[in-house]
Design brief:
single chain; 538 residues; alpha+beta; 20 helices
Length: 538
């Protein structure tokens, strides 16, 4: 049977792919999502399946018979085909498809779409890369990869802790996520994002959401059976986590990511105040030993900032009573109702762009209001020179058009205005910038006490470019290695928090220097607290 709809679970090891694939297969209507293209040396790998099916994979044989058999085996009676694919498997699959007549000159996304009809992608991500690495390392040592519910682990060896091997796996999984991000970002195909954390916490609802994404009308009538597999995490994971984090903080300068190393080197080269650089790096949770290695001879060893610096602690729990789950499922995400909205595929944060969010005439009118009402920009905790722009407090101007734009932004995210701050505008002239920073207030700090006591922390940010900057002025998400350049009317929106309400440091972004012309933007921040319900239309 040639399927009417295909999907690929795009993932990496120890991200819950067995849990998700088994749940979908058990419904009987969502294909048989197995690893049809496994390159492991044992089990139902590609070579063993081909032998079982009597298919030759030896050159110069074409890959077409194998693909045909995979589609037959992986498709349920209603015409849905499913498969799961690890990053390493996907690295070679498109090359194998080139042996099929008419495929060799196609770009990889088109090659995949031709092989798998009406192709949809399901991106399954495990956000906690350290636990993912520990889980994989333990499974590889004990040779216990899955345990069915109700059954004990038999013949399991006691795993031994090894920082370097776990660190290597952590880096591998980060790289694999980046590979998926780059590929899926190049595809013009439907994409559904699911995290391991969501799947393990709310299994039944997660399965139903995937079924709905696959347009299976029968999904609402199905009984979702409990998961067949149970979590393998045990006390050793909780024991290893603090050991790993402590060593990583205090001994591993290599763990300052490349974007921060480049930022440090560039600012030292430009003659920026080392004390200011130290303060910024400390605020961003880098340990003194790591900063010393990055700054070298310019490290201010006797700075009062170091004397006042306490070891990094885990952030305090998020405020109770805030619906963080719904904040991760606002209408822009769940319903895709905003024309021009696109998810920026990545494993670290929720990030969207919306083309033509504001019309050109709306942008022009806002600029007319902004220009005569500018003041020097300020920041809450950073040193002088960190932000060199001008600001207009649009929310303080009694202009009905500004109020209309304010409502438009809130409606786009589905969050009511009482759970937000008023719109603010920023103008950057040539040479001006806003160095890497986060929008949230760090819990447990004076900044948090001063600015978040009444309305809580910042949740979502929505920013709109009002003009096309001639050169420079990009917004760079430094931990994602992604930069968005000003495009008149385009919005960028992101969630500053994790699904449990903790601040997400990967939302750090840099308003890069304008090189020619000027950049004008408006920004609106949303908050945890407010009167009445938080959401519209959820």
């Amino acid at each position: 049977m040639r399927p009417r709809l295909s999907y690929i679970i795009c993932t990496s090891p120890r991200s819950g792919s067995w849990l998700l694939a088994d749940g979908l297969e058990s419904t009987g209507v969502a294909g048989n999502p197995k690893e049809w293209f496994s390159i492991e040396e044992t089990g139902d790998n590609e070579e063993n399946l081909a032998k079982r099916w009597g298919i030759s994979l030896a050159p110069p044989a074409t890959y077409e018979p194998y693909i045909g058999k995979v589609l037959e085996e992986g498709t349920t009676g209603n015409g849905i085909f499913g498969m799961k694919c690890m990053s390493g498997q996907f690295a070679v699959l498109p090359e194998k498809l080139k042996t099929i007549a008419g495929y060799s000159n196609l770009p990889v996304p088109e090659r995949m779409a031709r092989a798998f009809p009406n192709l949809h992608y399901i991106r399954l991500i495990r956000r906690d890369k350290i636990r993912q690495a520990i889980s994989y390392y333990r499974a590889r040592q004990t040779d216990v990869w899955h345990i069915e519910s109700g059954l004990p682990a038999e013949h399991a060896l006691e795993p031994t802790y090894d920082f370097e091997k776990i660190a290597g796996l952590e880096n591998t999984f980060v790289t694999q996520d980046r590979n998926w991000e780059e590929y899926l970002g190049s595809c013009q195909r439907p994409l559904f994002i699911l995290t391991y954390e969501e799947l393990s916490k709310d299994y039944e609802n997660s399965i139903r959401r995937v079924l709905a994404y696959l347009h299976l009308k029968e999904a609402s009538h199905l009984t979702i059976q409990p998961p067949r597999y149970k979590k393998l995490a045990d006390a050793s994971v909780d024991k290893w986590m603090p050991l790993y984090m402590e060593y990583k903080r205090n001994h591993a300068g290599i763990f300052m990511d490349k974007s921060w190393l480049a930022w440090t080197e560039e600012n030292l080269r430009r003659g920026c105040n080392p004390e200011e650089i130290l303060g910024i790096l400390l605020k961003n949770n880098f340990a003194p030993a790591v900063i010393r290695q990055a700054m070298g001879d310019q490290f201010p060893a006797h700075s009062a900032l170091l004397q006042a610096h306490a070891p990094r602690q885990l952030p305090p729990p998020a405020p109770a009573g805030v619906d963080y789950k719904s904040l991760c499922e606002i209408p822009l995400l769940r319903l895709g109702r905003m024309k021009g909205a696109g998810y920026v595929a990545n494993p670290k944060m929720q990030l969207f762009t919306i083309d033509h969010f504001l019309a050109p005439e709306e942008c022009d009118r806002l600029i007319e209001i902004i220009n005569p009402n500018l003041r020097p920009s300020t920041v809450t905790v950073y040193a002088e020179g960190f932000r060199t722009s001008a600001t207009c407090d649009l929310c303080l101007l009694p202009d009905p058009f500004v109020a209309e734009i304010d409502r438009k932004i809130a409606a786009a995210l589905g969050i009511r205005l009482p759970y937000s701050e008023g719109i603010q505008a920023q103008k950057y002239e040539a040479g001006e910038e806003f160095k890497p920073h986060t929008d949230y207030f760090e819990p447990g700090t004076k900044e948090y006490a001063d600015h978040a006591a009444q309305k809580g922390n910042r949740t979502w940010t929505l920013m709109v470019y009002l003009n096309d900057t001639l050169k420079g002025g990009g917004t760079r998400f430094v931990n994602l290695n992604r930069t968005f350049y000003p495009k008149k009317g385009m919005a960028v929106a992101w969630n500053n928090l994790y699904a449990d309400g903790r601040p997400n440091p990967d939302t750090r972004h840099w308003g890069m220097p304008v090189e020619e012309g000027a950049k004008i933007i408006i920004t609106k921040w949303f908050r945890e607290k407010g009167p009445g319900p938080m959401f519209e239309g959820i």
